[in-house]
Automatic annotation (TrEMBL):
InterPro entries listed in its UniProt record: Asp/Glu/hydantoin_racemase, Iso_Racemase_Enz_sf
GO MF term set: amino-acid racemase activity
Any Pfam family matching the protein: Asp_Glu_race
Protein's recorded name: Glutamate racemase
Domain of life: Bacteria
Family: Belongs to the HyuE racemase family.
Annotated organism of origin: Caballeronia sordidicola
């Protein structure tokens, strides 16, 4: 049986990715490894730290020891750590947002990126620019923090969080060719956005589709 290990930095990514895995790779055995201190430490420092990267390495090493056929990194905030770890982990590693970044750069040159925290926004923007460069594409990235959304969520006000985020996405859609949602948890809002003139991309489905393609190539 195919075994997929998913590294999470918080509980919010577990269910969306589980649903996509169940639909797209139904036969697989899934191991979820979750440590919410990773994201907390990245937010406190304002960037990915060597200590966080070291802990991610330990989790991926454990996933390899458990017989995982592939490892999915579920968090954009720590995605850059996997770039340096790939040479130390034999098991193939897929980043949840890499396929989304490639797709965004192919749709058009004006790319909007929305997040609620800068520690997710910044690495997502860097990934999009890097992927565009790899394909020889020139892009202009417009960044947006949904101001107040994260604080509302911390207060337990999910309704306000969602409303702020939706308003930010809709406003940005008028200025770009495609909108990228930097956090996995945002994907659930797409059906509530109504008809927009540009596509809105989220990472859970495209990330799991990338896992499926990687498994087929093994």
């Amino acid at each position: 049986m195919t075994t997929i290990a998913v590294i999470h930095t918080g509980p919010v990514t577990v269910l969306p990715i589980k649903e996509q895995l169940s639909e797209l790779i139904a036969h697989a055995r899934v191991i979820n490894i979750m440590d919410d201190s990773l994201l907390n430490d990245v937010r406190a420092a304002g960037h990915l730290t060597p200590e966080v990267a070291s802990r991610i390495y330990s989790y991926m090493s454990n996933a390899q020891a458990m017989g995982a056929d592939i490892i999915l990194n579920a968090c954009s905030s720590v995605g850059e750590a996997t770039d340096s770890l790939k040479e130390f982990i034999r098991t193939p590693i897929v980043k949840i947002d890499e396929s989304m970044a490639e797709e965004a750069s192919a749709i058009g040159p004006r790319i909007g990126v929305v997040a609620t925290v800068s520690t997710t926004l910044d690495p997502t923007v860097r990934l999009i620019r890097r992927k565009a460069a790899e394909f020889g594409r020139t892009v202009e990235v417009t960044e947006r923090i949904a101001e107040g959304a994260f604080e509302a969520l911390l207060r337990g006000d999910g309704v306000l969080h969602d409303e702020i985020l939706k308003q930010t996405i809709v406003a940005l859609a008028d200025q770009v060719d495609v909108v990228v949602l930097a956090q996995v948890s945002m994907a659930r809002l797409i059906p509530t956005l109504g008809k927009l003139r540009v596509p809105v991309l989220s990472s859970p489905r495209s990330g799991v589709e990338a896992v499926r393609r990687a498994l087929a190539a093994l």
